[in-house]
Amino acid sequence: MCTGSPSSNDSQSEEANATTEQQQQPEQEATEQPIRTPTHAIVAAAKAEEILAEYGSNLKLLECNSQVSELLTIIRDKNTTRSDFKFYADRLIRLVIEESLNQLPYTDCDVETPTGAIYEGLKYRSGNCGVSIIRSGEAMEQGLRDCCRSIRIGKILVESDANTHEARVVYARFPDDIGSRQVLLMYPIMSTGNTVLQAVNVLREHGVPEKCIILSNLFCTPVAARTVVNAFPQLKILTSELHPVAPNHFGQKYFGTD
Amino acid sequence: MSSITFLCSKSNGNNNHSDVQRGKPASAFTSASASVAVAAAAASGLLTIAVQPQQQSKVKAAAAVAKTNGHIDDRSDVTEPLYVDPYADLGNGNIGGGDILFCCPASPTTVPTKTALESPMRRAGRRQRTTSIGNQTTTANPSECIIRANNRTIYTAGRPPWYNCAGQQVEPFVIGICGGSASGKTTVAEKIIESLDVPWVTLLSMDCFYKILNEKQHEQALINEYNFDHPDAFDIELLIDVLTKLKEGRKVEVPVYNFVTHGRETHTKTMYGANVIIFEGILTFHSPEVLRLLDMKIFVDTDPDIRLARRLKRDISQRGRDLRGVLKQYLNMVKPSYANYIAPTMAHADIIVPRGGENKVAIHLIVQHVHTQLQLRGFKLRETLANSYKDQPMPHSLHLLDPTPQIKGLHTFIRCRNTSRDEFIFYSKRLIRLVIEYALSLFPFKMTTVETPQGVLYEGKRMASRKICGVSILRAGETMEQAVCDVCKDIRIGKILIQTNLKTGEPELYYLRLPKDIKDYKVILMDATVATGAAAMMAIRVLLDHDVPEDNIILASLLMAEIGVHSIAYAFPKVKIVTSALDPEINSKFYVIPGIGNFGDRYFGTEPSDDY
């Protein structure tokens, strides 16, 4: 579906680096002319091959069909109304959650159908839980609830210091036996990855092995992806888009506090 | 004059009584306009039927007038929805005209049923009938699926396939009935419909095709000097167009002629789907093009004296005209026209029926012939479908969802016979959501650039057209509606009811209600399971008949059998087929193996106690 020539890939990544730098200096960026970023499709094409090589097999992208592209476009559009924003964000969250659940372990299971025939199916192991990072991670809780009705959900509050930009955990509440569960960590926007690093650290302190954590994410920057993958190579990450500019307004627009 | 009473069996007598009583107070205020209404109604030729005691007819007409004069509201909450006034929308009231949906009557007759379909009780009646089919009672007793009029019966069993297994149309059988004014053409048509016992008959009257009169002609008409019996009074081109389309099985808009203004009403009558079309009028055989469209030509030959007597009686008592005017019109126009244009066309007739509707032998012969013809055209669709296309590669139009562990896991839940209904509904909803999301991604998208709050431009995609509508195949397809509404804001939903006739094993069309301009929409057609594909093919055929382009249709389903996919792809190669799982076989009862069982029954909790 997504195509791109090798030569265009090179230019893409250069451009990507350029925009990343600007993104780290938000004050400057605001005054500048809007920059034409590479199309989503081409970015994805570049990444699809690169991801394995660069980030390893534990970073997965949601299959980028036109419908997903449309959802991303609507969420990023600054002219989208709040009601539309929430509606389409919820749709995208649902897709990401469904895909994240695919990463959970399962066993084979044959069942008899009403027609008397045997269907060779599979069964998920019980003992999963969700953990959302306050506040934007909570936007994804409903999506998880819609898929797993009675799943336990823990919460982590991570605050970043206004001066040093250092993230630190100020609150965490988990099910008692979280150490023995598969954990679905929910956080929609990653621009630096620092918040997620802190959250994963807390989970590990509570005895959750790195390989049992699945990070569900909507928008991820290459920088953040690199940071997280370097720090936790066994962590599974699922995102819908790797793009140098993260839509940082997500939480504010979703909850209406902008 | 009689009104058509729509109801699913038996209790019609009572309803009419109550109706008459309700009409009475209103009758006081317009006896003059009552007769106008009668004239309009009668002459427009929608359904003018047997003569009844005059008193009652006047009262009824008054009721109709009352309605069109704004007395609609008090009727709408009355729990008497069974009475449908066929004339209600002849007046200016235009009940239901603002409705964005239109409906094609499931009943083949041309009775306008807008109001009827709004009423809850009527729906309940239908629903019951549907259920009873599931319980194998209805087909055993054909009288269950009858709609009764005051003095006639219309059969509204489901419509069997009207296309072959390549999805192509089989032409309906067209009967033309010609005869002089007041010769009993309509009565003959009624009798044929009654004794034919065939579903989906459309009655089309030539009166709908009178030309629009200009002011001068209008004045002439008022003093009985406009010749309504001359061939030039009819819009033959429009007639040919409508008849040709009907014969092709397409949806048509038939004009409604107003005999007071001598113009066409702004609204039209939608006709769709007939196995037999009966076309009646005084000059039915006049145009050679029309003659070519007729499969059987009947001339009703009634003695001129009797015709004049009937005409006098009808025009004076029901249309409020005077003896002198009627006679003048008869002698100057009706009689010469009959001699010049109508009588000579008798030569084209296959059958000449003397004495009109009372001629039982003639009617019997006609009905027998039609039956033979219909049998020659009919076929067993489902079996043909089930036995073809073995061991062929899957078609390109099939889009199967990635068999991820989640999808397999969901299938495990909903396929297991021991899953509780609560879980069945929950997990099938999740699966449906995934199917619909996937189906949406198959529509055309265009590139677009948007500005982001971060100050950079973002190149993404938007759907090329926002005009999407969902059409569900009742009953199991209904379960997918919620998911479509969840992913598309304010989406329009159409419905098609197709049930399997348990006697023949064939699918039959019972009911359909689609967005008005559906041809401009991309359509997601939904059915939970597809076995032979017979029902889905029927639904696609319906959409095509409503001028939806084939490549605008996506058929979305949870589970399909390979044969079904082959059949649909063969008949309609441009229709995209989306499903979350593909099963290899179907059993002798046309259930998919291993399958889900009867999805609708399990979802709605209507499983029969004895299992498969």
From TrEMBL, chain A:
CDD domains recorded: PRTases_typeI (cd06223)
Cited SUPFAM superfamilies: PRTase-like
Pfam family, one: UPRTase
Name of the encoding gene: Dper\GL21026
Species lineage: Eukaryota, Metazoa, Ecdysozoa, Arthropoda, Hexapoda
Keyword Protein biosynthesis: no
Record field: compositional bias (Low complexity): 14-33
Regions annotated as coiled coil: none
Protein name in UniProt: Uracil phosphoribosyltransferase homolog
Family affiliation: Belongs to the UPRTase family.
Single GO cellular component term: cytoplasm
Biased composition (Polar residues): 1-11
Ranges where the Phosphoribosyltransferase domain occurs: 66-242
Organism: Drosophila persimilis
Chain residue ranges for the region called Disordered: 1-37
Keyword flag Nucleotide-binding: yes
TrEMBL record, chain B:
One Pfam family of this chain: UPRTase
A GO term for molecular function: ATP binding
GO-annotated cellular components: cytoplasm; nucleus
Phosphoribulokinase/uridine kinase domain span: 174-362
Cellular compartments annotated: Cytoplasm; Nucleus
Assembly and oligomerization: Interacts with RNF19B.
Protein name: Uridine kinase
Lineage: Eukaryota, Metazoa, Ecdysozoa, Arthropoda, Hexapoda
Gene expressing this chain: Dper\GL11422
